[in-house]
């Protein structure tokens, strides 16, 4: 299973970009995007940026990854899923059997 990472573009030449996440930097292809600027948040799968993210979505994805890591380490992970405290997670429309 691959996990998409919410990375921030540090520098780019329009074809590739140096992206950062949690103190790690790596080269990433940005050919699927239309000239993303430095500072943009992108969702990266297998060293390819597949779409732009807004700040809130990037934060939610990062929190989910941190929460999964905490859960796997046997730590409390509730703080990473604060957006779910007042609601139940919803299945995407195409997975519902209504």
Automatic annotation (TrEMBL):
One of its GO terms (molecular function) is iron ion binding. One of its GO terms (biological process) is protein maturation. SUPFAM superfamilies: HupF/HypC-like. Belongs to the HupF/HypC family. It holds the Pfam family HupF_HypC. This is HypC/HybG/HupF family hydrogenase formation chaperone. It comes from Bradyrhizobium rifense. Transmembrane segments: none annotated. Gene3D superfamilies: 2.30.30.140.
């Amino acid at each position: 299973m691959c996990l998409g990472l919410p990375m921030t573009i540090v520098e780019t030449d329009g074809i590739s970009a140096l992206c950062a996440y949690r103190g790690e930097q790596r080269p990433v292809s940005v050919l699927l995007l239309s000239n993303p600027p430095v500072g943009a948040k992108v969702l990266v799968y297998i060293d390819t940026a597949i779409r732009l993210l807004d700040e809130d979505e990037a934060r939610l994805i990062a929190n989910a990854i941190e929460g999964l890591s905490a859960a796997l380490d046997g730590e409390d992970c509730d703080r990473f899923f604060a957006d779910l405290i007042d609601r139940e997670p919803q299945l995407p429309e195409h997975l519902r059997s209504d």
